[in-house]
Structure formats: C-alpha cells, structure tokens
Amino acid sequence: MNVLMCTTVFTGSKYHRMTEPARAVVEADLGIDVEVRHGIATTMVQRPGEAELSVGSVDARGADVVVLQLPKTVAMLQVLRLLQAQGVAVVVEMDDLFSAVPYGHGGHDSLVRGGMAKLALACAREADLVTVSTPALLQEYAPRGRGVVVPNAIPRRIAALPPAYEREPETVTIGWTGAVSVHPYDLQVMESGLQQALERTRGQSRFLVLGQAGESRTHLRLADEPEVLPWVQDVDEYAALVGETFDIGIAPLRDDRFNACKSWLKVLEYAARGVYSVRSPSAEYERLGLGRRAKAPRDWATLLTAAVKDPDRRRELAEADRTAVLAGHLTEHTASRWADAWRQARENRTRSQRLSA
User: Fold this and answer.
1) How far is 223 from 225, CA to CA, in rounded Å?
2) Which residues form a coiled coil (predicted)?
3) Packing angle between helix 297-309 and helix 311-328, nearest 10 degrees?
4) Averaged over 3-25, what is the pLDDT?
5) Cβ contact 310:304 at 8 Å
6) Are both 28 and 12 inside the same structural domain?
7) Which of 83, 134, 322, 354 is spaced 20 to 30 Å from 103 by Cα?
8) Are residues 132 and 197 in the same domain?
9) Are residues 172 and 292 in the same domain?
C-alpha cells in the first residue's frame, strides 16, 4: 500500500504527527510505502459564474491513501472530495481542537472568528478516517467509530541522548518551553508557586524560558525577569537542548476545553530527556502518569522546592519516568497503530464505493 502524507508548515505537528510516524512505519517494514510532502499538487480553475478559483484537479501521486494534516480551508475540502472521487482514501490528521482555541491565542481570530475551525470539522466529517492524538479529540472530530487515537511518542534517538539527571548542577534550572502568545492563560495557574520555590531555594535555583517569555514575569508573579533561550525550530535540536539545559521542567495548563484535548507531549519530552517535571492535572497528563501532579499554587511551591533541595530523589523519579518512555512511548511502539489506521481508511473508502455503486 502507498501512503502520501501532506504536511503543514507547523514544525512540531509535522515532526510528531507526520515525518516521525512515517519514518517509524517504514523502519518497521510493515508493507507500506510512505511519501511525505509539504502540501499536495493541485490545478486551480475558475468555473463559470464563480468569482473565486476552485480546485479543478489533484495529484495523489499514485497513493492508495492520502493523509491531510490540519486541513482547514475551502480548497482542502475540495481536495478531499476530489481524491475520494478518484477512489483514493483520505485520512484527516488533527492534533488540536481549533474551535476551542482561547481568546488571546495567536490563532484565535483566523481559526474561530475566521471560520477555519468549522472547515476543519467539515473535512474531518467527510474523511474516510480521522487520526487524533487524544481520546477527547476523537469525540470532537470523529465520534461513532470514524477515527483512531494514535498517541504522541518520542523517537528512540531522542530518548537515548544523555539524560539530564546524570548532571550534578551547582544551580538547578527550572524551565518552561513555549511562547506566552500561544499559552495566554496557562502560566497563571501556578500563581505565586514558582516564585515561592525560587525564594525558598535562593542561590540554588534559577528559572529559564526556552522560547518566548512575553509577559511570563507578570503571569508568574516573579520578582525578576526570567532568563531566556531563543526558540529552536529543529525538533531534534530542541529536544537535545531541553535535556542539556533543564533539570526540572514545568507544564502548567489551565483547565479549559482546548487544553482538555491537548496531548501529553510536553511532559513526555521532559521525561524522555531525563528531566524531572511538575505538571497540571490535565486528563492527558494524568493518563500518561509521568511527572508530579500540582493542583494548587502551594503544590507547585512544595514540589519544586523539594526537587531542588533533594537531588537524589529528583534523579530517581526522573530516571523512572525516562525508563517508562523507553518501555512504551517510543515511535516504534506506535508504528503499527499508524499503519492499521491507514489500512482501515483504505477499507472504509472501498466500502463506501461499493455502497454508492
């Protein structure tokens, strides 16, 4: 079977939901040839009486299954229909709930107000199969057996890098990865918890943002501006840097519909790199079972303080989390699930054609 995976420009989603799954499936020798490309080749036409161009034809490059990542435009809905008319099975891959992107998020205007979230849902509803990263997303995009959950996983080469817990730092680095522009309300759930921990461990700890700090000092009620490392676009380089820089990682999430659908990726990355983590009790973080749960500001303060002051315990827990990743959360563990999903999509398209014949 031939599968064509059509990616977006979003580096993280492309890496974890397209290029690395494709690599894992090919390396597992599951009888599937996979091609990964940015977008898909189309020919645009202007039909009589229509002011706007529309998709006249699409090139599936001989694929039996085409995977469309995060389709959210009228043109992509047209592409999906044209592919199916050719007998090609279409999988829609979704890893965020666009309709719940919060106000203040950088993508809110285009996704929610601009109608892209509705178009994404329309694409999912017409696909032969939908793949998602969480059970909550499955209920939103593909209820009643129309989709499959394939959880995020980490390539072995990342988890095999020297783990953070092997270091013995003089100053313990507490770190957060991300940009405030796409996490407008998440850091605030810690309230003063991080600042309390920094005060209790003064001279022993520091706080670092890998990404864009924005208004993080205000959101976290910090006495000082955090140190900042610029965002690294290459995901392998980013993952390596997390383990080389962080001793403790934080993963705060506000309890809202958007975050309830988000995957466990941030805590999984911390664990894979041997970084001790403290995280919010989101459904996916709880399901993953890695990291230490913080429900209230005092929990953040207590857990972070203890992790700084007790390096042996910090290393013990970080090592246990990394061992769990190596045992069950690598891309090689999810390869067959991706392959099964694509085969199911092919079967669904064949069945649909028979019913409509």
Assistant:
1) 7
2) none
3) 100
4) 96
5) no
6) yes
7) 134
8) no
9) yes
